[in-house]
Amino acid sequence: xxxxxxxxxxxxxAPHQHRLAVGIDLGxxxxxxxxxxxxxxxxxxxxxxELILPSVVRYLADGSRQVGREARxxxxxxxxxxxxxxxxxxxxxxxxxxxxxxxxxxRFVEGEGSVPRIQTASAKVTPVExxxxxxxxxxxxxxxxxxxxxxxAVITVPAYFDDAQRQATKDAARLADLHVLRLLNEPTxxxxxxxxxxxxxxxxAIFDLGGGTFDISILRLNRGVFEVLATAGDxxxxxxxxxxxxxxxxxxxxxxxxxxxxxxxxxILDQARAxxxxxxxxxxxxxxxxxxxxxxQGLLSREAFNELIEPLIKKTLxxxxxxxxxxxxxxxxxxxxxxxxxxxxxxxxxxxVSDFFKREVLTHIDPDRVVAxxxxxxxxxxxxxxxxxEMLLLDVNPLSLGIETMGGLVEKIIARNTTIPTARGQEFTxxxxxxxAMALHxxxxxxxxxxxxxxxxxxxxxxxxxxxxGAARIKVTLQVDADGLLNVTATELTxxxxxxxxxxxSYGLQDQEIEQMLRDSMDYAQADKDARSLREQQVEAQRVIxxxxxxxxxxxxxxxxxxxxxxxxxxxAAVLAVAEADDHxxxxxxxxxxxxxxxxxxxxxxxxxxxxxxAGHNLNEYER
Amino acid sequence: xxxxxxxxxxxxxxDFLQKRGAAAGLRLGVRTTGxxxxxxxxxxxxxxxxxxxxxxxxxxxxxxxxxxxxxxDGTELDFAxxxxxxxxxxxxxxxxxxxxxxESFTV
Lengths: 624, 107
Prior knowledge:
- The structure holds 2 protein chains of 2 kinds.
- Chain A is of the alpha+beta class.
- In chain B, the strands form 2 sheets. A 6-stranded mixed beta sheet of chain B has the order 4-5-2-3-9-8. A 3-stranded mixed beta sheet of chain B has the order 1-6-7.
- Chains A and B meet through helix 3 of A and helix 1, strand 2, strand 3 and strand 7 of B.
């Protein structure tokens, strides 16, 4: 029988409906996939039992591909066809890539549009396709381990990734047949792994020193949502630099001068890395170089090692200072510091960061896995495996989203604080006879009048068949995806005519502005209600008068005595007189009066049109 | 009436309970759903209701509501590995028939 996992209370899934979701750390050097099982987030192993997949894809001449360790191990021998660090090319144009990657071994060629392609032995591949190979392998690995198809994945991206880079990552996921529940910022994932999202609010720093890059991010937590305040870093600083430094020292000590002996250089570098890793645990290690030509042994103490690498470590501190300045927060305001990346295992790194922020740093989750684990926790929530209450805190629509209706009123479709992703629809109709187009105005805010809300987008639905007012059925659907992108679709249901637009609602909105908009909606609640009633009555008055005028013009003289007509005209004038004023009750009663004195006229018109329709027909025709 | 846990299952449950923290125990149960009539419930329990039976086996506090216990009496909860996948398994002597994958069953 199927194997079961322990669920949260009340969240047991129906048979065959397991909501398996994973978190993926799609890294420059290495990638990992993790999932929550029985309440515990853990990195999922490959069939070889490996937790870390090198982000390398090798394209062979026979059209086959190698992904991961095998590709990485062959990279030196086959540099043109073994693509590593493809993350750096994601969402970049050919021109941008060529400008930054002048000494890369890859043969970049032009493709469709401005997307760069890499010429390999088997095909020209785009960075998106290379990433998709990695994601696809991780997906298969996860499905084998979890015993079922995935409903989706949370994929992490650097906080500084722009829209194009994020879109490219999503495209790669789609190619890998993976549904993206959300793209999550890497520092946010690390903070979630440590449960920092459970605090009410606070500012946290994420220090990420990987193999080749360094990133520092300052995040502010507000009601369970992380906002990136600032990021800084160094794209050419990481653990590899420590290895090179140590290797140079070893060569110096051993009196070896090698320039172009790759095998020996590789050997020394491996020894240096091993020594570095050991020095995180031990106070002193034995380092050796063993080669056909050279043989050397030496002792390296942690003190000497620290002295050697100190200048390198100090280089991480000035981006930290810059990030704090950009975020406009002081060191005392930082509530927690999370360490990410293998190089943060080096004690000197921890000590320096701890001294800088004047507090203990968080290190107890494996720094290589912390991002994947945070992504897995988020994926578990998004897949719906947690109680609803916990979901509410994670990501919500900060302000209501709606559509402008007649009279400049807002019809709210997605209410504020609705958890996203979400989709809501509402039907609208036409206002005038023969109308074949409709202008849609998407607004955001809590107020009743369009003029008090923020305009997001305008678009038009055109070309539906003319119908009498109120007969057209126009369904407007607002959909906010997990990344906060709003997609508005309008469809005329009888004809199927459709139009849509995509916007990013929170773009450019500061927290204070959101807060101000909310406060205004409270302060002006009564005024807004009155304004809405007034506008509604004004629209109604206009509609009644337009209908009346049309009727009078066509057959007023036929059905009305002079005194009746003048009575109606008086009532009509009364409606017009109050319609411009601001008393909605007065308009309402004037409309009522007009309707009352038009009753006889309306009845006569009705009878006449029925007679007209039946004229010339035999009664028998209607009795069938 | 009782259910039991194998040593492997008890070990994993204790491990998960400890990692999650703040749970009253492990809840087992059945629900009427699924392609073959009933489905198992396997959850962390945050609270014990008056309709629950609570007992200990192999060091694990097991909570089962009285209605479910009728269908689970004599069941052994096991932990198994199938390839890369691993998870819990109900060995339930009351089951007469189950769907292909065994996720739902009839008694």
